[in-house]
Amino acid sequence: MVKQSNELANAANAGAAAAATSEFPAMLPGDDHRWLGALLENLRAKWWWVAVGGAVFALLALIYLWNADYEYTASLRVSATQPATARASGLGSLGGLAAIAGVGGLSGESATPFKLYVEGLQSREVATRLAANPALMQTIFAGQWDAGTKRWRQPPSIARTAKNAVFGLLGLPVYAWEAPGPGQMQLFLAENISIDQNIKTPLVTISMQSTDPAFAVKFLTELHRVSDQLLREQSRARTTSNIDYLTGKLGAVSLAEYRQVLFDSIADQEKQMMLVNNAAPFAAEPFGPATASLRPTSPRPLPTLIGSTIAGLVFGAGLAMLFGRRKRGD
Q1: CA 115 to CA 197: how far, in whole Å?
Q2: In DSSP terms, which residues pair with 292 in a beta bridge?
Q3: pLDDT digits (tens, 9 = 90+) for 99-117
Q4: Percentage of residues in the chain having pLDDT higher than 70
Q5: What predicted TM-score, i.e. pTM, was given to this entire model?
Q6: What is the DSSP string of 68-88?
Q7: Residues 91, 242: contact at Cβ < 8 Å?
Q8: What span, in angstroms and rounded, lies between the C-alpha atoms of 23 and 319?
Q9: Which stretches of the chain drop beneath a pLDDT of 70?
Q10: 140 vs 65, 127, 245, 275, CA distance in Å?
Q11: How far apart (Å, rounded) are the C-alpha atoms in residues 317 and 298?
Q12: Which residues, listed in sequence order, are joined to residue 209 by a DSSP beta bridge?
């Protein structure tokens, strides 16, 4: 009886083990390798999915490259016209007055003309001056310029009309069209002008991309001229005001020590005025003229074609594995 009971128990344990094995096949050793082998076998069986994916994506890349607008990169490298210490020495004994006027930053760092030049390249003041140039505006916003009537016009757009209609129904704000002006020019500067400041070199690179390399070179040259001229005029106005103030105080002071300080301050301001009125660049000096790349920099045909083909191969392999697993599941 005991022997029969043991045999029955062993048989029951063996049956339970077999049931557990059939219920949880993923726990068997080596099952992961069989699953991977099945996927590889499925890829070999459906290799044409991978080939078709790569071919389709390569064809799409070629169509894109045939119809793309190739852009060139134009760049202009500039540097400070002179060391910051030389500019600061021009203030002389007016260092306190300069700090009150806001020439120094909140952190105590001196706001040199070159730093102001770099920060002002995308400012509204520079954009306003560029917007006053009709040739630049008509080239940049050519789609909104009617050469026949010599007036700005709103270009027709089905998408914009549909969007405005939907926004109106939803109670969202709908903005009326405006002729290009300083605001649009500032937005153009923010979206298209790149400023590369490398701490390892005193040069700052200003660049932009355009389908017309000649226009890009012209625009960067004009952007530099306008930005430098703006700072020159601001410095001239500030220096003239300082000289007028010091000259007026000179007539009201009788002590010899005070008069000597005023004389020294006026001399420093006159030196600064000489720098302002010099024909040479005031805040930034170009390190050579603006230039454009000899070949298009965007899009790049070979990397685009190779990358698209690889993406197509991966996409085709994914489809092959997906449909292969579904078929096995069925």
Answers
A1: 11
A2: 74
A3: 434 444 444 456 788 999 9
A4: 75
A5: 0.72
A6: ---BEEEEEEEEESS-HHHHH
A7: no
A8: 29
A9: 1-43, 45, 82-110, 324-330
A10: 24, 13, 44, 34
A11: 29
A12: 73
